[in-house]
Amino acid sequence: MRRREFVTLLGSAVAWPLAGRAQQPAMPVIGFLSSLRPDRQVPTTRGFLQGLGESGFVEGQNVTIEYRWASGQYDQLPAMVAELIARHVSVIAAVAGSAPGLAAKAATTTIPIVFQTGSDPIKDGLVSSMNRPAGNVTGVTRMGTTVEPKRLELLHELVPKVPTISFLVNPTNPAADRQLQDVQDAAKSLGLNLDVMKASTESELLAVFENLSQKGSGALLIATDPFLNGSLLPALGTRYRIPVGHFDRNQVAAGALMSYGASLVDSFRQVGVYTGRILKGAKPTDLPIMQPTKFELVINMKTAKALGLTIPPGVLAIADEFIE
């Protein structure tokens, strides 16, 4: 850069705070804290921004967003929360599992927090009441962990001759032990053997599918977990010809056999709506925990055909969507 250009630029930077900035009120800042990395959360982040828009806020126009991505490293969340607090954010949107919400709750009792999780927020310790959350915390739950027994039952109906179903869980998820117990109880009631597999990294995930392939596993149920919602799963299921039961419809669109659960994108949209309402003056205690009103069964018919599966009439009758 030439010296004259640098002086001109410096002069503009000095003049701007004295003129332009003084004329415009400071925009509120949202702290967006996620347990995932940004490329794993594009559709859901769009859902969040949509919800903000429904509340009258547009990023860059009348609100600023500070993004923090833990990329699956839950131990980094406390430091990220501290950064957001130092940035004087007006509200923290803690999304993609209970861990971000718990980290934010442990760090501040004054900054409003809106969480998004797939598990039971009362059992996780995020709130003590669904209708009247206390303190500075409210949010949205998909209650995905509570329907995992039903998801196991539906997967069993799709592969009725399979005596053992594998269950993949992320051991770093705070809800992992509860998930495992619920699914083990459901497997026992269905007369199924349950083969528990664990993965919290992509290398471990690859090893799981290699192991399942060697065992000749008949089906795999995925636990509700942000890390286990990656694009790698459907591809691995297709490669190793393993019927995969998931919690997210998008995974079925990508090649998994079936999913059963509430809309993930819509839960993020609701977080955006609540965040916007708080920016307008609402208190977290006045915003009840949002829960899903509908769980949808989605089946990929192309995957079923490739696996040589015939969908039972009873399952066909209750399915909400078929992907060809």
Summarize the structure.
The protein has 2 domains: 148 residues, Response regulator (Rossmann fold, 3-Layer(aba) Sandwich); 145 residues, Response regulator (Rossmann fold). The protein is 43% helix and 18% strand.
Keywords:
7-stranded mixed sheet, alpha/beta, 14 helices, about 325 residues, Rossmann fold, about 45% helix, 2 domains
Quickly give the structural class. Answer: alpha/beta
Strand portion, in percent?
15-25%
Summed over residues and divided by their number, the pLDDT gives a mean of: 90
The strand order across the widest sheet is 7-6-8-9-10-11-12
Helix coverage percent: 40-55%
First-residue to last-residue Cα separation: 56 Å
Question: Element order, helices and strands?
Answer: HHEHEHEHEHEHEHEHEHEHEHEHHE
3D structure, described in words:
With 324 residues, the protein is of the alpha/beta class. It has two domains: 19-143 and 264-286, Response regulator (Rossmann fold); 145-261 and 296-323, Response regulator (Rossmann fold), CATH 3.40.50. It is built from 14 helices and twelve strands. The strands form two sheets. Strands 7-6-8-9-10-11-12 form a seven-stranded mixed β-sheet, with helices on both faces. α8 (176-190) links the parallel β6 (164-169) and β7. α7 (148-158) crosses α8 (176-190). The protein starts with a helix and ends with a strand. The model is unreliable at 1-24 (pLDDT under 50).
